[in-house]
Amino acid sequence: MQIKLNGVAPLRHLGVIRAQGIDAAKFLHGQLSQDFLTLGLSEARLAAYCSAKGRMLASFIGLQRSPTEILLICSLDILAATLKRLSMFILRAQLKLSDASADYALYGLAGEAAEAVGDGKQTVWARTDVGPASVISLYPAEGVRRVLWLAPFDQKIPAGVAMSESNWAWGEVRSGIAMISTPLVEALVPQMLNYESVGGINFKKGCYPGQEVVARSQFRGTLKRRAYLAHSDAAMIAGDEIFQAADDSQACGIVAQAAAVPAPSPAGFDAIVSLQIRAKEAGDLHVGNAHGPVLTATAPPYPLLADI
Prior knowledge:
Elements: E1 7-10, E2 14-20, H1 24-29, E3 44-50, E4 56-66, E5 69-75, H2 76-87, E6 96-99, E7 104-110, H3 112-115, E8 127-130, E9 133-137, E10 146-152, H4 165-175, H5 211-219, E11 225-232, E12 241-244, E13 253-260, E14 269-276, H6 277-282, E15 285-287, E16 294-298
Antiparallel strand pairs: 1-7, 2-5, 2-6, 3-4, 4-5, 7-10, 8-9, 9-10, 11-14, 11-16, 12-13, 12-15, 13-14, 15-16
């Protein structure tokens, strides 16, 4: 029986950073992998925040609430450290960064609940407003429409049947879009999560921390890892290492995001894994060590930039 993704789920694992001031867009443009100077009210943008070595410290879904206010949605477990680091670079810029998580409620809508908001034809990362709520179109999962709902906490919960957070988490995995959480901080450059193929990098914008490394990975053919979907009968969590059976000395990949497969499907876990391309092609993959639970990796559910 096919798993049905449908309903409304609270997203308590996410938080919100507010950038407020006349220099909000300019500041974020100089810090993140996306163009925030041209960010409009009808779109949101996926972005990476990188170290000088091009390794991802955080990832965000950014949207503009007003000409002087931008909200960044990220994993709650990295929010405090990310906010502290970003604040170090404000210098003379006219803006204030703050934790706005307590001001907003975040929900994930899938299936009929998602179809009920907007016209259902918006492209990925398109944004529409439903009263005071902002609705962001996400990548689908198993062909099912999904949206992110952000609204002030005093607003009504969006309409739809209740969906568990675990089912939403599985849909996130099946969409193939991984967000940075604590186990992944400084582990990967953006292309190792396919960010260049899902709207997470703008190669035409100006400099930002790690920009040279990110550009070199893209245009000099040095990228050796990609993000794939994966399955194992055993439990997986973000940060678990992946090995090939023939080499127990060095991991060939890492679990970026994982979730239990919902009933009524067979037990097991699905994951987004960042994996060496050669290891994916060779197969014989295992979780934890070279003799651990078997892991099967498959292509992501969207074309990679080289294939487009």
